[in-house]
Every structure is written in C-alpha cells, then in structure tokens.
Amino acid sequence: MDKQASNIRWTVVNNSGQCPTWEHVIVAVLMDIRQELYNLNSLLACQNFTGMPRTLRKIAANTDKKPRKPRLHKAKGA
Prior knowledge:
With 78 residues, this protein is mainly alpha-helical. The protein has a domain at 22-56. 49% of the residues lie in helices and 0% in strands. It contains 3 helices and no strands. The protein has helices at residues 22-44, 47-50, 52-62. The longest helix is centred in the middle third of the chain and has 23 residues, at 22-44.
C-alpha cells in the first residue's frame, strides 16, 4: 500500500477495476487522522497560540474593572 494514499476518495471500484479492501480503507483513515494530529500539534506550538495567556493577562491588567455592587446582607433568622 502506498504511504501517500491518505485523504483520497474511496469508490467501490477504482480505475483498474479493483476494490479497495477494508484494511486499506482503515489504514488510509488512520493516516488521515495522524496527519490532522500533526497539523494540530504544529498549530498549538505556534507563538500566537502559546502567547495567548500572556496577552489576555495584559488586557485584563489594562482594563478598568467595574466596581463591585454592594451586597445586601440578610438579617439573621429571617
């Protein structure tokens, strides 16, 4: 089986008249999932993603916080 056969359209019969076996289908799907995981890992390691908490902390520090509303205290036993 070709290692580059991931992300292909599966038909009942291909151009050479052969039917793909379930093993080929399963391996191709697993290769697609593997490729997507590699893509996701590369995106999650991006500086824009890893720097997000620092950026959010800066925004929170520079944003004026609303004053808290006074809380009404209930009388005991009421």
